[in-house]
Design a protein that fits this description.
With 187 residues, the protein is mainly alpha-helical. It contains nine helices and no strands.
Amino acid sequence: MDNGERNYTRFLQGDKEGFIELIEEFEKSLILFINSFVNDYHYAEEIADEVFLKLYTAKPKFRGDCAFRTWLYAMAKNIAVNYMKKHKKSKLSSLDDYFYLSDETDIEAEYTKSEDKANLNRAIQRLKPEYAQVLHLIFFEELDNPQAARIMGKTNRQISDLIYRAKNALKAELGKEDKNEQTKRKG
């Protein structure tokens, strides 16, 4: 698998179906990755739309010095960071924000599919954002350390250390969840 490069090249050559396939391949996982930055599923969807809009309108050149997925996720990270800077001061919730909660649950349920994965996903969301991001990239997106390092703007060594700390934090978080579940069963 070329991680989307073939579809993006087809799109750049005028085949609109290539762009549609690109969205189908990356949309859900990109939203979950962006959500680890913004911690708001609705905004993560908006930012993912912005990433695809940038690809569609600006048609940035993919140089091929990394995997296409790495390039796309790095672009998404930059857009998410800029979005957060821009919207940092004014985060007001309207009632419209709450209409998306049922959609959010359906997409996540479809993506995680099993109760174990859902529990794992919830535990990851409770971790520090940097931990959630590295775990998502390495274990869900199956990127290697250099690709994750490039996306997150870190060295390979920093990524290795971050993965180690993130795994320990996740283990502790899952331990808390198990204790809470046992307490509920007893009570």
